[in-house]
Write the structure tokens for this entry.
Amino acid sequence: MSLWTGHIFCFNCGKEFIVNRLTPVEINAALTMLQCPHCLKTPVGQRPHRVNFISSATRRFRKTRRAEVWHFCEYCSSWPDHEFIEIDFQPRGEFCNECKVLAVG
Ligand SMILES: [Zn+2]
Ligand SMILES: [Zn+2]
């Protein structure tokens, strides 16, 4: 099982923090259980933290030439398979919502 870095937005203060070297299951658990390092709040009830994106050492980011949104899960229904730009470092910009769901599912 590969390990991942999760980039997470706090449910309360909205600031981003990073969890390192977790499995997808552990990242999911962190969304509901982890204390925010900024505001020190822990999620309650139905308000978990939000994943911005997750990455690994072998993660690839792709987008089509005209699109603004980056994809990072090859199982995404919109994963670009032609005319795309691919990079292996974290881009600036927006990330695909479907990829976010798939990556932590
Ligand atoms: Zn916070
Ligand atoms: Zn996608």
Observations:
- Residues 1-57 form one domain.
- The helical segments are 24-33, 97-104.
- The chain has two domains: 1-57, 59-105.
- Residues 9 and 16 are 4 Å apart (CA to CA).
